[in-house]
């Protein structure tokens, strides 16, 4: 085997891996000018003050059912994926907390969230007593849904 036969596939894999690598949240300021991001991570957090009632979520896409998850105070459910350029990547979750529920909430769709989460590669959703909040950095929260 020649040297060129070995090095070309290695270089291709290295460049490809560099393009799709996940950027950690703490490095978000250094990558504000990301042009294309293909890997994302969605975080769903239980932000309630106490454990009187758990947050119950069920998330799915057209192709994948991520199942039902019970989250107690300060617990998190997260999933990661690669966006499709052929069809729309969309994840929907149902949030239930006691008698409160919010169904069919789009937690990622490669239109709005692709732009708002592009700099960090992370989309955060936190359920609290007065509603469901969104952030792309786990620090600046915006209420998107009231119970």
Contiguous helical run count: 2
Fraction of residues in helices? 10-25%
Query: Going across the major beta sheet, what is the strand order?
Result: 4-1-7-8-9
Overall geometry: elongated
* pLDDT < 50 stretches: 23-32
Average pLDDT confidence is: 83
Strand count, sense and barrel status of the largest sheet are: 5 strands, mixed
Write down how many β-strands occur, each being a DSSP E stretch of 2 or more residues: 9
Structural class: alpha+beta
Query: What does the radius of gyration come to?
Result: 18 Å
Distance between the termini: 64 Å
Q: How much strand?
A: 35-45%
What sequence of helices (H) and strands (E) makes up the elements? Answer: HEEEEEEHEEE
Kindly list the characteristics that best describe this protein.
147 residues, four-stranded antiparallel sheet, alpha+beta, five-stranded mixed sheet
What does the secondary structure layout of this molecule look like, with pairings?
Elements: H1 3-20, E1 39-46, E2 55-60, E3 65-71, E4 76-82, E5 90-97, E6 100-109, H2 112-116, E7 122-128, E8 131-135, E9 142-146
Parallel strand pairs: 1-7
Antiparallel strand pairs: 1-4, 2-3, 2-5, 5-6, 7-8, 8-9
